[in-house]
Design brief:
Structural class: mainly beta
Largest sheet: 7 strands, mixed
Shape: globular
Order of helices and strands: EEHEEEEEEEEEEEEEEEEE
Strand content: 35-45%
Radius of gyration: 16 Å
Distance between the termini: 41 Å
């Protein structure tokens, strides 16, 4: 049963964080997660039954059933990720799978080598977010949709910093278009490249 967690203190931090996680009424396969200080994601995910677990080190990973839907809004993700040995793969600021993923009005920044947003969901709605390396971040892709899917990327501010580890902003289907719909809409976004070269959409 999902319930509100008790406030926790992030490791090495002073700020307290509170997470609310519960099923959405009328949508039995859906979960609402809100009011989260994701700097404490390792402890928050383990202390609440939101269906997630730590991925390779520091990462927010949410696994849902094949029909699961996820909405994240008004949240911040920072300084997660790991792509160094002996990991055997990369962790990312946000890593999601399921049938539908919506990220809106949120801020993802300073991923450590991993991607700022990665989703394998069949449908993706990435709307009105700030997705940025800032001046010191070294993320890889800003947005990675490796299996395609019906995807809307609308109204975001996406910035690539001078220390990026991959010069592509948004990549679509690079691991195979296994999702049933292969439509990508990139509308009214602002892409800022402080790296000096790069590809906006690949």
């Amino acid at each position: 049963r999902m319930r509100e967690s008790e406030p926790v203190v992030p490791p090495g931090g002073r700020e307290r964080a509170l997470v609310f996680a519960h099923p959405v009424r009328g949508m039995p396969r859906s979960t609402l997660v809100a009011l989260v200080d994701w700097s404490a994601v390792q402890r928050l995910v383990s202390r609440t039954a939101v269906g997630g677990r730590r991925q390779h080190g520091r990462s927010f990973l949410m696994l849902t059933s094949a029909g699961g839907r996820m909405l994240i809004e008004y949240s911040e993700f920072a300084r997660n990720g790991n792509c160094t040995a002996p990991v055997g793969g990369c962790a990312h600021n946000i890593y999601v799978t399921g049938s539908r993923f919506t990220l809106r009005h949120s801020y993802s920044h300073h991923a450590n080598s991993g991607h700022l947003v990665k989703s394998r969901a069949a449908e993706n709605y990435i709307l009105y977010n700030r997705i940025m390396d800032e001046s010191t971040g070294n993320s890889s892709y800003k947005i990675d949709l490796p299996n395609g899917g019906l995807s809307y990327v609308i109204g975001n501010l996406v910035q690539q910093g001078p220390n990026t580890e991959n010069s592509t902003f948004l990549i679509y289907g690079e691991e195979g278009l296994s999702n049933p719909n292969h439509a990508l809409y990139v509308v009214n976004n602002t892409f800022v490249n402080d790296f000096g070269s790069g590809t906006f959409v690949a």
